[in-house]
Specification:
By secondary structure, the protein is α+β, with helices and mostly antiparallel strands. It contains seven helices and 20 strands. It has helices spanning about 25-35, 85-95, 115, 200-210, 235-240, 260-265, 295-315; strands at about 1-5, 15-20, 40, 50, 55-60, 65-70, 75-80, 120, 125, 130-135, 140-145, 170-180, 220-225, 230, 250, 255, 275, 275-280, 285-290, 320-325. The chain is globular, with a radius of gyration of 20 Å.
Length: about 325
Amino acid sequence: MYSLASHHSFGFTSFAQSFLTVNSSDDLHTQLTNLTDSRYYLLGEGSNTIFTENYQGTIIKPAFMGITLEDNDTHYLVKVGAGENWHKLVMWCMQHKIYGLENLALIPGSVGAAPIQNIGAYGVEIEQFIHQVEYYDLQQKQYQSLRAIDCEFGYRDSVFKTRLAGKVMITSVTLVIPKKWKGVTHYGELKQLSTPSATDIFNKVVEVRQSKLPDPAKIGNAGSFFKNPIITKALFEQLQRTWAAIPSYPVNTDKVKIPAAWLIDQLGFKGRRVGGIGCHPNHALVLTNDGSGTGEQLLELARDIQLAVSQEFSIRLENEVRLIGNKGPVFL
């Protein structure tokens, strides 16, 4: 048995049958040839995964490293190994005066996980910078790649979470970043900035995230537990009659996005606890583990929140965090 406590930021004491780290193409072929378990789970840095109990299978961790840079008259092409840390990549780009990723600063996790989740923050999503995703098909035993248009990106979603989920291992991500920079400041606290530079935006994002989100090194958490729901304008207008201050962000002509944290906060969940699991007092979207929590307690609190929001607002919250149980995904 292999302890997973240090491999997911929520910190539950859980175990897997075995653990494989894949560092290179040659390593990949050797490791997978020797893989005996039919059940396996691909794990990056574990910042968006919670093991709610022992996992009866093998954990495979991609650790492909390295950053290469090419450019032309209009764009930078940055190819990054899947095992690189996402925030360190953002800082690397800032240091090389390659601007555009600053709104995505301090998002935890690996580069390989970024397109899977289509990470986003402060009005920017990674899909707008994806040029190509290279991966190893675990069933066909061969390398392949997808262009951005074929990745089927959606809100916190991609082809890697749907029909390719668990079937491929991302080995590298190539980003295409325009040399002509235009800052994105229409979202949240960034509206306070006046004609900011990319560095100003980066610093503000880091400041806000550090002030709102607990450090996983100090208290177990996986960041935002639920997705921000997207609802019809008709439902939004109906909710406004009771909740006049309900915030929203336009998605298209028919739908709007609602901050899940606001919904949860209105129902008084901040600071609420079930055993060692709590809803963070400063950010209702973050569930935490004080070190004594259990998977059962986490699922109980998450389901309580989900049910209360559904009953009050007619909105079903979906977990953004991946919940992994004994045999695989766990659903609320």
